[in-house]
């Protein structure tokens, strides 16, 4: 959008130089030409120019439509890039880089193809346009200007002095145009060379920076806590990653790429089938651990035992929906050909959607091949159900579920977890919903201060403690009201006692009491 506005502003600013100035030149030149060659010659020249101009307009391609279509293609390409930047982490977890690369390349090559076609059209149109404007119109003008020179006396257009002046005018005009054209080319060349020097400097800086990064000569932008000496040592070290069937962290620090140390050392072990619940306050390191498992963040110490990256599937709270058909949303990052190679049919995909009560979407949206901007067409709950069906399709060994059931009901949540476990998927859930505790065997709880607890999860006991906690919190909320009532009762009691004491001094006080 900003590029389109900028181009519009530039074109608007060029109206004076492209229209007003040439119109003024035409008026001045026509006035002087009418005085030199007469009104008859001017009328003839106008007829020739108007006729050739109509011919030129007739053969001129619709460059306005071309420009609008090019702006549309460019906007779609920029949107594709921004979409990828916005959802880079989810794409990396899904290993959808090849799919996204194909989407971007399709948009890029569509733009390049259109630009090449427009350039080729401009070349041929430019040749014809230059032939008419510069050569044909110039020839017309020279012929008209030459009439007084050669046939002035025969046509009664004046003495030889007028023809000599006209001949001198034509000669000087040609010399002036040639000189100015040459000087203009020099100035244009200087401008182009200056721009080229600037582009060359930018490209040179890019290559030098890439070489420095390749040789490890770069500096990170670190947070203030990374300046501590111990943290610097941790950032300079590297841990080990060993491929394994289960997941185990052995004294692994959780450190963000900008040097923020979340946990100095973490150790836990999760075997297949030991479903893990991860809880803790925001910013304590829950997502950091999953980024290490997904290979997105480096390991700065200790040893990480984990399966290959393709054995993980990540479902965030707001699932990523790619550009493509309804079918692509479930099989992402696979394509239709890869789906068939796995022996999966559309009926199988429909069955996966039925599990999460989403099977009606196929008929509602017009079939599997419907293409839409799905992140705008679907609600939050529908997106989460699509992501659950995607989990069933890939059937990974481990699934990282980050608040992925926050927008669906308990029945859909139960169906999703039950079916995932039936498929042999070990789930690792980030959620504070008590309804999910019964599906997990282990719990990893962060305290938000750099500590954590890893233990067996007793769902019934934890639910009982949760209910007791809520009951106590409810009672504590009643304390201020009870205190106010107590003060009110004390005040009433004190007033009655005072009234009784006063009543002993007379019958009127007793009656009032």
Automatic annotation (TrEMBL):
Q: PANTHER family given for it?
A: ATP-BINDING CASSETTE, SUB-FAMILY D MEMBER, PEROXISOMAL LONG-CHAIN FATTY ACID IMPORT PROTEIN 1
Q: Where is the signal peptide?
A: none
So which domain of life are we looking at? Eukaryota
Q: Name one GO molecular function term.
A: ATP hydrolysis activity
Swiss-Prot/TrEMBL keywords: ATP-binding, Hydrolase, Membrane, Nucleotide-binding, Peroxisome, Translocase, Transmembrane, Transmembrane helix, Transport
What organism is this sequence from?
A: Vanrija humicola
Q: What is this protein called?
A: ABC transporter domain-containing protein
Cellular component GO terms, alphabetical: endomembrane system; peroxisomal membrane
List the subcellular locations: Endomembrane system; Peroxisome
What kind of membrane protein is this, topologically?
Multi-pass membrane protein
Family in the record: Belongs to the ABC transporter superfamily. ABCD family. Peroxisomal fatty acyl CoA transporter (TC 3.A.1.203) subfamily.
């Amino acid at each position: 959008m900003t590029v389109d506005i900028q181009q519009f502003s530039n074109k608007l600013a060029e109206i004076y130089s492209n229209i007003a100035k040439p119109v003024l030149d035409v008026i001045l030149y026509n006035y002087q030409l009418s005085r030199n060659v007469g009104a008859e010659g001017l009328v003839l020249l106008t007829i020739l120019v108007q006729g050739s101009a109509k011919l030129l307009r007739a053969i001129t391609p619709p460059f306005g439509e071309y420009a609008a279509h090019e702006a549309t293609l460019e906007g779609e390409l920029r949107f594709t890039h921004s979409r990828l930047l916005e959802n880079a982490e989810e794409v990396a977890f899904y290993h959808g880089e090849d799919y996204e690369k194909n989407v971007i390349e399709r948009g890029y090559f569509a733009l390049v193809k259109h630009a090449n076609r427009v350039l080729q059209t401009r070349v041929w149109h430019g040749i014809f346009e230059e032939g008419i404007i510069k050569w044909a119109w110039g020839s017309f003008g020279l012929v008209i200007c030459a009439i007084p020179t050669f046939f002035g006396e025969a046509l009664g257009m004046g003495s030889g002095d007028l023809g000599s002046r006209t001949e001198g005018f034509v000669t000087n005009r040609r010399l002036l145009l040639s000189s100015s054209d040459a000087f203009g080319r020099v100035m244009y060349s200087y401008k182009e060379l200056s721009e080229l020097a600037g582009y060359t400097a930018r490209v040179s800086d890019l290559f030098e920076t890439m070489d420095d990064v390749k040789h490890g000569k770069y500096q990170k932008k670190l947070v203030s806590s990374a300046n501590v000496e111990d943290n610097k040592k941790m950032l300079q070290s590297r841990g080990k990653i060993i491929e394994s069937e289960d997941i185990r962290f052995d004294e692994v620090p959780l450190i963000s790429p900008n040097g923020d140390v979340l946990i100095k050392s973490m150790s836990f072990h999760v075997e297949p089938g030991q479903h893990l619940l991860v809880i803790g306050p925001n910013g304590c390191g829950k997502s950091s651990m999953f980024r290490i498992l997904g290979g997105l963040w480096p390991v700065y110490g200790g040893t990480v035992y984990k399966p290959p990256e393709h054995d993980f599937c990540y479902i965030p709270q707001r699932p990523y929906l790619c550009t493509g058909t309804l079918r692509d949303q479930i099989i992402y990052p696979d394509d239709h050909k890869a789906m068939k190679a796995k022996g999966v049919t559309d009926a199988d995909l429909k069955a996966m959607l039925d599990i999460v009560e989403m099977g009606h979407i196929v008929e509602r949206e017009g079939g599997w091949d419907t293409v839409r901007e799905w992140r705008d067409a679907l609600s939050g709950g529908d997106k989460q159900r699509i992501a659950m069906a995607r989990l069933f399709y890939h059937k990974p060994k481990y699934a990282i579920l980050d608040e992925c059931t926050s927008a669906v009901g308990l029945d859909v949540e139960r169906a999703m977890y039950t079916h995932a476990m039936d498929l042999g998927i070990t789930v690792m859930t980030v959620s504070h919903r008590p309804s999910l505790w019964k599906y997990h065997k282990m719990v990893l709880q962060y305290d938000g201060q750099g500590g954590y607890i890893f233990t067996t999860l007793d769902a019934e006991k934890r639910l009982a403690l949760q209910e007791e906690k809520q009951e106590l919190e409810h009672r504590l909320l009643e304390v201020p009201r009870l205190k106010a009532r107590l003060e009110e009762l004390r005040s009433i009691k004190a007033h009655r006692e005072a009234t009784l004491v006063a009543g002993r001094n007379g019958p009127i006080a007793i009656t009032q009491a």
